[in-house]
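Sample 1 of the test manifest.
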Amino acid sequence: MPDSLARWLLPMLGSLFVALWLSALPMHDTWLWYRPAWPVLILVFWIILQPERIGLGLAWLLGLAQDLVAGTTPGQHALALTAVAFLALLLYQRLRMYSVWQQAGIVFLLVGIHQLIGHWVQNLTGVVAPNLKYLLPALTSALVWPLLAPWLRPMQRQLSQG
Amino acid sequence: MLLVLASLALILADQRWQWFGQLESRVAGAATPVYWLAALPGRVWDWGDDLFTNHAALREDNARLAARNLVLAGKVQKLAFLEAEIQRLRQLLNSSTLVGESVLIAELVAVSSDPQRQWVAVDKDASQGVYVGQPVIDAHGLVGQVVQVTPGYSRILLITDATHALPVQINRNGVRTIAEGTGRIDQLALRHVAATTDIVVGDLLVSSGLGGVFPAGYPVAVVTEITEDPGQPFLIVKARPSAQLDRSRHLLLVFRASEKPDA
């Protein structure tokens, strides 16, 4: 099915790759703490758009890819993203009904959970966070979400037409 | 559920088994294109910077570097003599002679994107003789050690990573201690320094060569803060790494003389 391939698979893989790229972009040490969790954002975006096509397996593979890129313990991001995808798949019907800022609130919670799981795994491997700064990406991700949300409806319309 | 278990299994496997790390380093080469793309904006910036650097600035730079080179050359003059002298003295003392070292220049291709982990990746891999455990320095001091060699790049754990520790000694009096990473790029902590130890702010810490990973004598850090808390069994000592961990674009991979690569 080359048609459906071009319609959603390529944009999805492309955007996930861009998310990985954004998560690996070198930044100054101070700003590093504020980097939004791009892979979570893009994954949640696609889950709201196409919950029937995006499964936990994809989230897990994306997490593994992020582990390789970030040099973290293999499994850390995989575990966190799988958990987030699971929650997002439970919530997608509500998320579709919500206003942008309500969605941002859920994104805040999801990224927060993502960060907590990541932090928990890092603790196991001996990296102890000096403070709660590791939760900051939850806030910045929620603030970035309103930039992504306006694309949801037009894309959904386009996809449903095919 | 299955995937959660798989993740946990991976985390455990990475902690427990050596072979898993080797497997991982094979697969990790796949991250190379992402690093290349991530470094692209910086590279374009540098390229533009090169393009628009004017003639006068270049001449000024050149003059400054020539002057600096002269100073360094002057300092090195007596080094060969001193080195031979030290070898002779060590022979007199019947202790083992120091081995020479050679270096390989490597360029940074990626830095850790996680603020809690401190690592960098450089563009040299096993084909240039890089090996796991190899010490890495920059122009100012010790940087870290190679922890992963994959096709395309090598990952270097910095001395400031929270999972890193290295044996050091105070250059002034030879007191040995352990410098641990704190997870902050500008700070090391010294472990188990007794309250009676002769240590003052400003002391230079050099690698002691114990542990067998790092060669002895490279500057590691300068003591910046000493706190004595009567409730604690040891002094709380903070130090600032000598190497410019967050600025160096080029690093030196150190080879012992016997393991010098062909390149």
